[in-house]
Specification:
Blueprint: H1 23-45, H2 51-61, H3 63-81
């Protein structure tokens, strides 16, 4: 028997080379990150007492009044952009 047994196996070459990301992959990652941040912001704004929660409650209580306000705001914004 030989006593040339290595103590640990050689791990050279087992890690793959790190490939640089393509522009498309970076753009997709950026869009995913932006979407996640927007979703988090909306979820935070829907907490009780926050603006989206208040608007949602107002629209539930008075749907026609809310529709009228939204319509008038749409007209006001539409006339400004012309």
């Amino acid at each position: 028997m030989s006593e040339d047994i290595p103590l640990s196996p050689s791990l050279e070459g087992l890690d793959p080379e790190v490939q640089p990301k393509s522009a498309a992959t970076e753009a997709i990652d950026g869009l995913k990150d932006a979407g996640r941040r927007a979703r988090d912001a909306v979820e935070a704004a829907r907490q009780p007492g926050m603006p989206l929660s208040v608007l949602s409650n107002m629209a539930r209580e008075a749907p026609l009044g809310s529709l009228l306000v939204a319509f008038l705001l749409g007209i006001a914004v539409g006339r400004r952009t012309r």
